Amino acid sequence: MSTPTVGPPARAPLWRDRTFGTYWVAQSLSAAGDSFAYLAVPLLVLQATGSVAQMGLLTAVAGAASVAAGVFGGVLVDRYDRRTLMIVADLMRLVLYGLVPLVWLAGPQVWLLFVVLPICEAAGMVFQVAAVTAVRNLVDRDRITEANGRLQATYASAAVLGPLLAGVVAARFGPATAIAVNAASFALSAAGLWLIRLRPAPVDAAPVARERPLAEFLAGARFLWGQPVLRALTVLLSVFIFLTYGFVDVLIYHVTRDLGGSEGTVGTVLGLAALGTVAGALLVAPLRRRRGFGATWIGAHAVCGFAVAGVGIATSVPAVTALTAVYLCCLSIGGICSMSLRQEITPDHLLGRVTSAFWSTHYALGPAGAVVLTWAAARFGVAAVTLAAGTGCLLVAVAGLFSPVRRAGAEPAAAPPDVRVSSASGTVGG
């Protein structure tokens, strides 16, 4: 009588993993809080100054700080404990954002935002790099994609409720109170991280060579620029982000000044439009399986261009909401595609540095773009600016057709000869 074959024991569903579940809940609450600042900070500036150009300048200063932090964020993440870095970043933002509503009790102090927001954005960049790399220390390698999908879908869902609630709070109690809610969310995130322990790096992982921080950052940059697809993505996204970095500021200005909406209206627009982000998170996997990386990424950014162009032309709040939802849906599809690609083809010991090199490089032009976009909106009107920006986004998608991005998924991505990549992660999935 033959002995029946016994398969490997069934694993519990990911949602029953206590460590991942705690991390998941804490970061979802933090993402909901972030959406309060996403809406409240521009409203606070617009309320105090009435200037869309001031909104763009603050966005630019904060973005520049984020880019600067990105240069060394990956080095810190690959060198030090990722959980500790995230907790420190949360506590810094708790204290700094908490100062804003306290100082605002004595009256508007716009200068404080130019101090607080850049520091918080720098801390946020370090946190984001650590959070992306921490997924590998939370779950087994074969569950990374599942974990990423759950996290991104939940973040997107939080982004729906966040602006809606932020709009209500800002309309009823003022934007400064909405920022206080955001500050409290970082306390919840830090508490959740304190309750978990990340897995240690694999024993066979390549150690991080202790060199000067700039030299370590350049190791990630060399890998990034040595991969044809990642190199092309970085160039194309640099242009795309230049064109769209100030989009939310222009959108808020359009809704409040051109369409006569209130703070609550803005919150409703951004909250309902964020359903597009949820849709993008759900659509990206089947789209990439059926169409491949190149077609999915290029198509998403082409549709983004049409949506951006349409927002400024739209003359009703429902039309603006629908077009913004389409934009956020396609932005989500393109972003998740890019993130998954980096995780698939980057060695673990370089992931933090490659992630920070990717972000800091393609966001480098964003601050300048925010200044130009908001200045032009005040000078020439929203319709002309969004039409120009949307046309530029379409040209980015067209350029992708003539780059290695178009073929990604149809053939393996070539790795630099001096970088060790395992066979399991050395190809670009379709």
Automatic annotation (TrEMBL):
InterPro entries: MFS, MFS_trans_sf
Principal place of residence: membrane
A Pfam entry, by short name: MFS_1
Source species, domain of life: Bacteria
Gene Ontology MF terms: transmembrane transporter activity
Membrane topology, record value: Multi-pass membrane protein
Keywords: Cell membrane, Membrane, Transmembrane, Transmembrane helix
Segments traversing the membrane: 21-45, 57-77, 84-104, 110-132, 153-173, 179-196, 232-253, 265-285, 292-313, 319-338, 350-376, 382-402
Subcellular location: Cell membrane
Keyword flag Membrane: yes
Record's GO cellular component terms: plasma membrane
Record's protein name: Putative MFS family arabinose efflux permease
Organism: Micromonospora taraxaci
Lineage of the organism: Bacteria, Bacillati, Actinomycetota, Actinomycetes, Micromonosporales
